[in-house]
Amino acid sequence: MSSHKASAVAQGSGAPASNRETDTLELAELGPLLEEKGKEGLPTPPPKLKKSKPEEEEEVRVLTLPLQAHHAMEKMEEFVYKVWEGRWRVIPYDVLPDWLKDNDYLLHGHRPPMPSFRACFKSIFRIHTETGNIWTHLLGFVLFLCLGILTVLRPNMYFMAPLFSWFFHTVYCHSEKVSRTFSKLDCSGIALLIMGSFVPWLYYSFYCSPQPRLIYLTVVCVLGTSAIIVAQWDWFATPKHRQTRAGVFLGLGLSGVVPTMHFIIAEDFVKAITMGQMGWFSLMAVMYITGAGLYAARIPERFFPGKFDIWFQSHQIFHVLVVAAAFIHFYGVSNLQEFRYGLEGGCTDDSLL
């Protein structure tokens, strides 16, 4: 009898302990706010009012979502403040968002997304993967602008392409929308540069042949305008179509082979090279083609990933060659123009060319 009573007493004393453990687990699941209420001695709700598991999870989620949103906003404000003050750090390629990934052979030194134009322009004076691209075309723009001022009467549209390219490389890390917009502007500037290089050369080379001059100028303008239209498509500026971009601009440049051969055959090879400045224009073409080829193939960083992240990458070499070729073209067109103006606009002595 005594043993039976002891067992009954043990069972009776064990039941409240089990209930207390169950209550503690329920309070823990409902979060710290409800746990505090439980500690104050509030009565445990009856079984019929007990919430199901999905309802408990929903209540906890409702309690935590505002806190998560608040913390996310604080982090965003802190990041924007650091970017605005210029206290950002360069980041590796693999953590860039997809719209900022362009060359996977440049492993380190990239700018993070910076949703501030002020921060983008202040980054001109920081060292990162775009520093060389920015300054090569910024200096090219300033030099061509000075040339345009010094030679007002001579055709000079060379500063447009460096200006557009400088804007693109400066602000393309702002946001995906800004990056796409200025990328289209950059590609349009390249097409304008090629088209603008042909126009004065065709005009002065076929100065006394109006019909071929009109045909060639029309073809070049149509091709250049077509390239600008194609550059407005979103897919055109993606890394996947890098070779397509290079091919479009290379094809636009090679369209000058036909008028070049016409000019050499119609005149004389030696006179075309000397008085017709074909030597300078051929050098210009070689530099354009070389730069486009290096850009499309991503040489040299393709063979040494991570070694040319900051300096001497393919895009920078392309920029330098383009600016140098534009200077050579300007020099050749200036000499050709002086030759034509020396004849006082007449073609009676055109046998000299």
Automatic annotation (TrEMBL):
<feature type="transmembrane region" description="Helical">
    <location>
        <begin position="215"/>
        <end position="236"/>
    </location>
</feature>
<feature type="transmembrane region" description="Helical">
    <location>
        <begin position="278"/>
        <end position="297"/>
    </location>
</feature>
<feature type="binding site">
    <location>
        <position position="169"/>
    </location>
    <ligand>
        <name>Zn(2+)</name>
    </ligand>
</feature>
<feature type="binding site">
    <location>
        <position position="319"/>
    </location>
    <ligand>
        <name>Zn(2+)</name>
    </ligand>
</feature>
<dbReference type="GO" id="GO:0038023">
    <property type="term" value="F:signaling receptor activity"/>
</dbReference>
<feature type="transmembrane region" description="Helical">
    <location>
        <begin position="132"/>
        <end position="151"/>
    </location>
</feature>
<dbReference type="GO" id="GO:0033211">
    <property type="term" value="P:adiponectin-activated signaling pathway"/>
</dbReference>
<feature type="transmembrane region" description="Helical">
    <location>
        <begin position="185"/>
        <end position="203"/>
    </location>
</feature>
<feature type="region of interest" description="Disordered">
    <location>
        <begin position="1"/>
        <end position="57"/>
    </location>
</feature>
<keyword id="KW-1133">Transmembrane helix</keyword>
<dbReference type="GO" id="GO:0046872">
    <property type="term" value="F:metal ion binding"/>
</dbReference>
<comment type="similarity">
    <text>Belongs to the ADIPOR family.</text>
</comment>
<keyword id="KW-0479">Metal-binding</keyword>
<feature type="binding site">
    <location>
        <position position="315"/>
    </location>
    <ligand>
        <name>Zn(2+)</name>
    </ligand>
</feature>
<feature type="transmembrane region" description="Helical">
    <location>
        <begin position="248"/>
        <end position="266"/>
    </location>
</feature>
<dbReference type="Pfam" id="PF03006">
    <property type="entry name" value="HlyIII"/>
</dbReference>
<keyword id="KW-0472">Membrane</keyword>
<dbReference type="InterPro" id="IPR004254">
    <property type="entry name" value="AdipoR/HlyIII-related"/>
</dbReference>
<feature type="transmembrane region" description="Helical">
    <location>
        <begin position="317"/>
        <end position="334"/>
    </location>
</feature>
<keyword id="KW-0812">Transmembrane</keyword>
<protein>
    <recommendedName>
        <fullName>Adiponectin receptor 1</fullName>
    </recommendedName>
</protein>
<keyword id="KW-0862">Zinc</keyword>
<dbReference type="GO" id="GO:0005886">
    <property type="term" value="C:plasma membrane"/>
</dbReference>
